[in-house]
Amino acid sequence: MIKPTLLLLTTAAVSLSTLANTSVEAQLTQCAAVQDKLDRLICYDNLSASLVTKSAASSSPTSEVIAVASSAAVITSTVNTQADAVEEFGNLKKDKDEQVVTTINLTVSKVTKDPYGALKIQFDNGQLWKQTDSRTFKLKPEQEVYIEKAALGSFILGTKDRNTTIRVKRLK
């Protein structure tokens, strides 16, 4: 019996060698005709990689300078993004997938309850968060808490001295 990984690698190698001699349109048609989803994805990935390799091989010194300059700009923007990441943490309208911040530490400024008993928590940095579950959780001003990303775009709030957490969402 052939191992699935070996079969996959063989299919990818055959696809890559076949794709090297045909036009892009024909290659796309060949990839679209592949029935298995994973094999089709591998076909498209190989096509993409071959196009990137061909364009890199035919690049001029000018395009190399542009590539270096654009990578420097990406590094600079990454540093700026990380500085803003803590400020924008939990703001789903502005939240980006590439954010690397998964947990922030905050100090509670004010705690109130809405008409349904859910906590509304104001922090020293101006952020306002609201409890989304119905658990009992006591907080007081000047208390240190953490908020971290949880599953499916949700957030949990907890303290280091307790083993319980509550689900929260950012209001502002």
Give an overview in words.
With 172 residues, the protein is α+β, with helices and mostly antiparallel strands. The protein has 2 domains: 4-57, no CATH class; 103-170. The chain has helices at residues 4-19, 24-33, 37-57, 61-88; strands at 103-113, 119-123, 128-131, 144-149, 155-158, 165-170. The protein has a 6-stranded antiparallel barrel with strand order 1-2-3-6-5-4. Strand 1 (103-113) and strand 2 form a beta hairpin. Helix 1 packs across helix 3 (37-57). The chain starts with a helix and ends with a strand.
Low-confidence stretches: 62-77
Average the pLDDT over all residues and give the rounded result: 75
Shape from CA axes? elongated
Helicity, in percent?
40-55%
For the sheet with most strands, the description reads: 6 strands, antiparallel, barrel
Overall structural class, as computed from helix and strand content, comes to alpha+beta
Radius of gyration: 25 Å
Beta-strand level of the residues, as a percent range?
15-25%
- What count of helical segments does DSSP give? 4
**Strand order of the main beta sheet, please?**
1-2-3-6-5-4
